[in-house]
Design goal:
This protein has about 475 residues and is an alpha/beta fold. It has 3 domains: about 5-265, Spore Coat Polysaccharide Biosynthesis Protein SpsA, Chain A, CATH 3.90.550; about 270-340, no CATH class; about 355-460, Jelly Rolls, CATH 2.60.120.10. It contains 11 helices and 30 strands. Helix 6 (about 195-205) crosses helix 7.
């Protein structure tokens, strides 16, 4: 029986702020190796009989997903959730989509698996259980009383796994210690394997409201470029619930298979420090970092030089617009900083200074009253929308590459050191028809400079005016 990989790529990743933000969360970042976490999740399936891929994400992140999967030639189907409704509905959408009732291998896009051979061996060992109608979940042998994970108590041996005695929510330290000491519990990885039809059967039995909402949402599905859009109104009516609550805790056919493959969900900076290669002083360093007399710390910078003297057990993360310093034991409180940014109406919780778009990216270099300056990078073959602005004028200066510019009723090419001025209200567009990236500086001036002052007339990526 073939496998359909179902990749859950939603989530905001705020626990890894300031690198991970709502508009560009951790699953789309390269944190543990040279691939993004989404790409690593897909590439580790190479040893399995995976015949198809379904990735589920939200509207805002759809171009990250499409571009990153296209880079590794695993585009597959991409379902857009109009709103987040947790894992039970998300899996149901995939189950309704697939043909020929394959096994669904459900994976989060933000997990690390360090031993891919062991992962492949374990999943293959679980296939007969799933083919026989069992709903398989994969459990991780705990090496410490971790309070950030849910637990599974295993029962009797069942072929390659165990029957599930019960699921337990994230426990207190004392309970977690008891679970680990007993030897009867494992961490709940959130990875599943089961027939699509079996999951839908159990979902219909235990949560018919979720089943019907997802079924009706998929009945009115629309195709949009690389994406599948479900019925927004129908899906919004769907209850918010995890697959554990909706199905796995209720079914009599749940089994747990132990997975010993160096699993980690990278739920914090300290957990990333734990699984990363360290220097002789126990430090993990990324970027231009110089430490002296410092130990067991995680220091990361995406540009400027960061130095530290006499520090121990700290996490220091420097981005272009924020600096975060925390003791490793306190990184779980980063969410409080993110909450404060939200309530203070600051953008740093959501947006990076460097913002990615389907055509490339821009970096907000400087801003002041009635002006701002961006460095724009346009990928080969990409084109910004045909647009105009009601409140701002723009001046473009090409740094490298060649730009095909539409400025009012004129179309012309600009090379390095050449420029053009676009007055307020003039239709314009920018395109890179070359083989290398196009780099330019954009100087904006006007009474209002917000990103919502864009009136789009044509767009390759199906975006509307904002």
């Amino acid at each position: 029986m073939s496998i359909c990989a179902v990749i859950m790529a939603g989530g905001s990743g705020t626990r890894l702020w300031p690198l991970s933000r709502a508009s560009h969360p951790k699953q789309f970042l390269s944190l543990h190796d040279n691939n993004t976490m989404l790409q690593s999740t897909v590439k580790r399936l190479a040893g399995l009989d995976v015949q198809s891929y379904v990735t589920i994400c939200n509207e805002e992140h759809r171009f990250f997903v499409a571009e990153q999967l296209r880079e590794i030639d695993k585009l597959g189907s991409i379902i857009l959730e109009p709103v987040g409704r947790n894992t039970a509905p998300a899996i149901a959408l995939a189950a309704f989509l697939v043909d020929h009732d394959p096994l669904l291998l459900v994976l989060a896009a933000d997990h690390v698996i360090q031993d891919e051979a062991a992962f492949t061996k374990t999943v293959n060992a679980a296939i007969p259980l799933a083919e026989s109608g069992k709903l398989v979940t994969f459990g991780i042998e705990p090496n410490e009383p971790h309070t950030a994970y849910g637990y599974i108590k295993r029962g009797e041996r069942k072929d390659a796994g165990f029957t599930v005695d019960k699921f337990v929510e994230k426990p207190s330290v004392e309970l977690a210690q008891d679970y680990v000491s007993s030897g009867d519990y494992c961490w709940n990885s959130g990875i599943f394997l089961f027939k699509a039809s079996k999951y839908l059967e159990e979902l219909k039995n235990f949560r018919p409201d979720i089943y019907e909402a997802c079924k009706s949402s998929m009945a009115n599905m629309q195709t949009d470029l690389d994406f599948l859009r479900v019925d927004k109104e129908k899906f919004e009516s769907c209850p918010n619930q995890s697959a554990d609550y909706a199905v796995m805790e209720k079914t009599r056919d749940a089994v747990v298979v132990l997975l010993d493959a160096g699993w980690c969900d990278i739920g914090s900076w300290s957990s990333l420090w734990e699984i990363s290669d360290k220097d002789i002083n126990g430090n993990v360093l990324h970027g231009d970092v110089i430490l002296h007399n410092s130990n067991n710390s995680y220091v990361r910078t995406d540009g400027r030089l960061v130095t530290a003297i006499g520090i121990d057990d700290l996490v220091i993360v420097s981005t272009k617009d924020a600096l975060m310093v925390s003791h490793k034991d306190s990184v779980h409180d980063i969410r409080l900083i993110v909450d404060h940014l939200k309530t203070s109406s600051r953008n740093e919780w959501k947006l990076n200074r460097e913002v990615y778009r389907p055509w490339g990216k821009y970096d907000l270099i400087d801003a002041g009253e009635n002006y701002q300056v961006k460095r724009i990078t346009v990928k080969p073959g990409a084109k910004l929308s045909v647009q105009m602005h009601n409140h701002r004028a723009e001046h473009w200066i090409v740094v490298s590459g060649e730009a095909r510019v539409t400025n009012g009723d004129k179309i012309f090419l600009l090379s390095e050191n050449q420029s053009t001025y676009i007055p307020v209200g003039v239709l314009h567009a920018l395109e890179n028809r070359g083989k290398v990236e196009l780099e330019l500086i954009e100087v904006q001036s006007g009474s209002y400079l917000g990103e919502d002052d864009i009136v789009r007339f044509e767009d390759l990526y199906g975006r509307s005016s904002k």
